[in-house]
Specification:
Residues 15-151 form the HTH marR-type domain. The structure is a single chain. Helices cover 65% and strands 9% of the residues. By secondary structure, the chain is mainly alpha-helical. It has a two-stranded antiparallel sheet with strand order 1-2. A hairpin with a 2-residue loop joins strand 1 (92-97) and strand 2. The radius of gyration is 19 Å and the shape is globular.
Length: 168
């Protein structure tokens, strides 16, 4: 798969530092020990793949497994296995697709919604403790800038996808 060309100009030092900080955040948030601690504190004994799928499902309408896979950027078989795990644990259920009765969508159960609420609350409490010395203005500014950055990343990705011959 060819990758799109990068801009010719070197990145500014500020953008380089942002990339480094994002890498550090990603590393910290994806560590196995952090996941194990979060799920233990929340009382939700699910693996990282199941938690990622739960989070995605909590933020969207019920979707077909293939749509969930595309949204998460993983193989459909990966989502199928994870959905089976979530069904067995009572966190998700398959429901008929109203647009095509032959297809099914995956929906959170009450147990799944409660689990994601506990995970988010536990994560927020940890973040609150880590940022307790920040002023409300600093926190508001950071939240605004994070949302702006994500929106710009999404717009840029959409632009790349719209370019002729663009691949992902």
């Amino acid at each position: 798969m060819p990758t799109p060309p990068l801009p010719d100009a070197p990145a500014s030092p500020e953008v380089t530092e942002i990339e480094r900080a994002l890498h550090r955040i990603t590393y910290l948030s994806s560590r196995a020990r952090r996941h194990e601690r979060l799920t233990a504190l929340a009382g939700v004994p699910l693996d990282r793949a199941a938690v990622a799928l739960l989070r995605k499902m909590a933020d969207t309408e019920p979707m077909r497994p293939g749509e969930l896979a595309a949204q998460l950027g993983v193989e459909a078989s990966h989502v199928t296995r994870t959905v089976q795990q979530l069904e067995k644990s009572g966190h998700a259920v398959r429901v008929p697709d109203p647009d095509d009765r032959r297809a099914q969508r995956i929906e959170l159960t009450d147990t799944g919604r409660e689990a994601i609420a506990r995970l988010r609350e536990t994560g927020v409490r940890g973040m609150q403790a880590a940022l307790a010395h920040w002023s409300p203005d600093d926190l508001r500014q950071l939240a605004t800038l994070f949302h702006r950055m994500v929106d710009d990343f999404l717009a840029h990705a959409a632009d790349e996808d719209a370019e002729p011959g663009a691949t992902r």
